[in-house]
Amino acid sequence: MQLMKMHPKDLYLDLLKKSLSFTLWPEPPIPVTTFAYAAGFLKRVAIMTVSKMLATRDLQLVKKRGFSEYQRQEGRVWPGYADTMIGLKRLDNLQECIESVIEEGIGGDLIETGVWRGGACIFMRGVLAAYQIQDRRVFVADSFQGLPPPAPKRYPADAGDAFHRQEFLRVSEEEVRKNFARYGLLDEQVVFLKGWFKDTLPTAPITRLSILRLDGDMYESTLDALTHLYPTLSPGGFCIIDDYAEHGCRQAVDDYRDAHQIRDEMHIIDWTGRYWKKSA
């Protein structure tokens, strides 16, 4: 699209996506402590010891990472500085879904369950701001303490899951609020739901949704979100799955769709993203 033919709101949303995903800049080195949990015991001890020694001199041990444009577009990167890790393809899909419900007059709020640093929710609020919409809210649902430990007896698909050990995925509510504020998008249309989904979603002040975006990774988290929120999704609204490539998430989505005889076609966004438009 030629620059002169782009509407100001399109220019804003394009810049917002690139800023949130940090794709305007090269991916910087990342502290080696970020993924130390996955190393063997001796290597992990060595990493932490050296890092602590360097920290006393305001130094940091980092690992240089080189990612291709394709990897960043597809959201295959766990980024150091970006406010979202979903990549540009899934951000484009989110924009298309929101613009569709706006244009078609599909009523309801927007929610993401599992927000990390808040980037996708910030983008949701940015789209509403660009279209000057004041009667829809963005719900930001997260424990703000990482993922829950697996409960394999109740949810066998989560057996062996190690997401709960990853410090990288633990982002506080305060940090997410600050991220909203940095983009000028923290206001009364943004509602935070703090806690495990099984505790917060059953009583969440939500009556109708137009966008339901799930990013819970695990079977339990995904099923909790679908169970308590999908019935509130308006016909014509969109259910977006961020982690369909993850076994637990995929199994939860398939089980829920089968149990409730959902036959709406599931579309591919990228290697892990899926979505469908609710027909009834």
TrEMBL record:
SUPFAM superfamilies registered for this protein in UniProt: S-adenosyl-L-methionine-dependent methyltransferases (SSF53335)
Signal peptide interval: none
UniProt-recorded name of the protein: Macrocin O-methyltransferase
Origin species: candidate division KSB3 bacterium
